[in-house]
Amino acid sequence: MMQRPFRPEEYSLKETSPHLGGAASGDKLTTTYDLVEQMQYLYVRVGKAKELPSKDVTGSCDPYVEVKLGNYKGTTRHFEKKTNPEWNQVFAFSKERIQSSVVEITVKDKDFVKDDFIGRVLFDLNEVPKRVPPDSPLAPQWYRLEERNGHKVKGELMLAVWMGTQADEAFPEAWHSDAASVPGDGLASIRSKVYLTPKLWYLRVNVIEAQDLIPNDRTRFPEVYVKAMLGNQALRTRPSPSRTLNPMWNEDLMFVAAEPFEEHLILSVEDRIAPGKDDVLGRTAISLQHVPRRLDHKLLNSQWYNLAKHVIVDGEQKETKFSSRVHLRICLEGGYHVLDESTHYSSDLRPTAKPLWKHSIGILELGILTAQGLLPMKTKDGRGTTDAYCVAKYGQKWVRTRTIIDSFTPKWNEQYTWEVYDPCTVITIGVFDNCHLNGGEKANGARDTRIGKVRIRLSTLETDRVYTHAYPLIVLTPAGVKKMGEVQLAVRFTCSSLLNMMHLYSQPLLPKMHYVHPLSVIQVDNLRRQATNIVSTRLSRAEPPLRKEIVEYMLDVDSHMWSMRKSKANFFRIMGVLSPLIAVAKWFDQICHWRNPLTTILIHILFVILVLYPELILPTIFLYLFLIGVWYYRWRPRQPPHMDTRLSHAESAHPDELDEEFDTFPTSRPPDIVRMRYDRLRSVAGRIQTVVGDLATQGERLQSLLSWRDPRATALFVTFCFVAAIVLYMTPFRVVVFLAGLYTLRHPRFRHRMPSVPLNFFRRLPARTDSML
């Protein structure tokens, strides 16, 4: 099959002009939904009924209510043998799909053959009142039931009928007319929902020593180690170098634990008798509810734990007079941030312990408007269809929009808000196809299909500006890069304190414990894998569930896997960073070879001046950088970054490279020897790819100093350059060199373990990782 020619505009960002927050002239505007287009709905709240007559020959009444508007019909649940039922259900009908001027609310008696008509209430839509929050909810009223001929009958129905928007409090839980085809057990999976990530802690288990061990084989020196298990996480120490009955380790084991602490920490002391054969010398179970929590690096008291051959977690354990025991120091680390996202596009950098949180610096508001040109994701009744919904993740808060049934141009118009504690964070928005409309039991293991995602770094946004753009939804498949459609978003970042936000650029990116007591790269990688597994498991147990494949896609679980395409992209990112230096070297070579005599003469004159007046060197450099920054301000980026297929080398990837990228790990390619070598190569190359990507990130951060990609950071740097130029001009150069030398060679007593302010500022600068697929 011939590949479609690449068109750059197809994957570009498009600025849009939606009618945000607007209503008809004369209507009151909402303040909470000003980043979305208003959608008008007819709401019908069915409260309760009283004194309903009996229609059955048995004298009983099994009532339910049917709300009908044109071709759309919704029903409440029915009650058996009850003349005073209470439903308290809300029905919402989209105004743009209304094909009738009358809404009919009918009370019926459920029967085996044919449901009996009890009575009805009619409302003329021209007489229905309008309600816009923050107005108080419309009070329901009692209405007398009528026959079809208009005569009053026995029984009354409590109703409230009004016209409103999606900002109405009743909107999230209402039955929607566009979901009339969804069965009752699938309704829960189409509603909007807000989720919270479980509170994650690092659990540090310092295994110090054991005493009075009793091996089963006393004719040999024991080779003892400690194995610790928390849920599905299992770690073990190295075998003790002292092969005695009182071994010592002094080794740390790190786990991820989530509140509420449902699982016990199980420790077992084991003796390695032979390869693959271990003898358990004793076990103990520790409840995390009683484990102390620390906020800094100060050591906590250690404790001895008795070992037993059999452990009963929830029952009592018999004590022995002479018991083997193990010496441990266990604590829950509140000073770390538990990484469950890639560090390149984290949405939260706060420590676990709430007392260590700083005040928020602003508000992030996101309006999820519409999608355009979505491709059919599945087949139903012989035709392609898509049931799309969005998921947005920032910090600990996940949001999920309602599912729009059978539409390639869904309109959500839902708005969400997050508190911002650090501007150098990223919000992720994903679009998915719902494959669980028939309820979880009937889905047969179906997985919601990814349509695409968008990442937006907050530091690249100007404050108080509303960004309205259509973002391309791009996915990479084994057949190549594919555009699945576009999603239209409205984003606004509001800063509550500009001074506090500017001050954050000098602060460490991660909490203090990450620098005072750092974790190894291997530990961070393993702990992140455990954290994402815990988050995906917990959220998949919610109702409606945020499924595992959704969470893993949003958190980029497989971002560390080897890919030839990503390696090429990172290599060319480095070349893009080095190309200005190469250009300068070529220019200097031209100066040396007198290619342009006039320029060479001017450079000679400048060189002589700088030699005679060396104090002008640094002011000239900083003033030059200041002027470049001011000059580039005219061409500063006016749009937020988006997924860049050219930067990611997605459109030029070879089919064999894509086949390798989408291969399983471990590989499924035969034969066995190829599988072993192939996996080893990918594992090593994955680490090289990470290093290359990190180098590219540092270089791109250097470029962003003057690119105005982060307007606040560039403003700070340009201002610093201007001030530095003046200060260095007024200060003798020899004094500057002398002070700089003293500072560089200062005594260790005057050095801090925390990173310096320039380093903190540099680490907060944006790179092009946000635009990588």
TrEMBL record:
It is a multi-pass membrane protein. It comes from the Eukaryota. Belongs to the MCTP family. PROSITE patterns: C2. SMART domains: C2 (SM00239). The chain crosses the membrane at residues 600-633, 715-745. InterPro entries: C2_dom (IPR000008), C2B_MCTP_PRT_plant (IPR047257), C2C_MCTP_PRT_plant (IPR047258), C2D_MCTP_PRT_plant (IPR047255), MCTP_C (IPR013583), QUIRKY-like (IPR047259). The keyword Transport does not apply. It is found in: Endomembrane system. Residues 23-143, 182-305, 345-471 form the C2 domain. Keywords: Membrane, Repeat, Transmembrane, Transmembrane helix. This is C2 domain-containing protein. Residues 1-17 have a biased composition (Basic and acidic residues). Its main location: membrane. GO terms for cellular component: endomembrane system. Residues 1-25 are annotated as: Disordered.
